[in-house]
Amino acid sequence: MEDWHAQMANEFRNRDNPKLMGCILGKVQAIGDNWLVTIRNGTFKIDKTNGYICNQILRHEAEYSYEHEGTTTVGGCLGGPNTNYSSKGTGKIHIKPIWKVGDLVKVTPDESGQHYFIDDIVR
Fold first, then answer.
1. Which of 1, 42, 99, 105 matches a 20 to 30 Å C-alpha distance to 66?
2. 26 vs 118: CA distance, rounded Å
């Protein structure tokens, strides 16, 4: 005869545990302040109330610097008495928004399956 605790342990093992959801594909339905992503063929909707968007999707930013020197020419001829030049500078490039309606995105749920992270655009 089985001990009661072994039988109880078997019951816990045999019950229907919910399966955790891994990364899934979502589809961008709207962008901007009222963004919307759907998953599972539009069955579930993710927006700012239950989702988070990684910054790289909303805006891409890069810093640059340059330094250049040379000789100016016009039609292959030297450009004038002061044909040598040098130039340097720095700046930032802002490209926004990166995502657009219709894009597929990688969606990762949190442990509870109640909140989602929009990680990246899938091409």
1. 99
2. 8
Average pLDDT value for the chain? 86
The residues facing 107 across adjacent strands are 24, 118
The count of other CB atoms within 10 Å of the CB of residue 31 is 18
- Average pLDDT (73-96) is 78
The C-alpha atoms of residue 5 and residue 64 are separated, in whole angstroms, by: 67
pTM of the predicted model as reported, rounded to 2 decimal places: 0.62
Strand ranges inside 1-123, DSSP E = 24-30, 36-39, 44-46, 51-53, 60-71, 73-74, 77-78, 84-95, 104-109, 116-122
**Partner residues linked to 90 by β-bridges:** 65
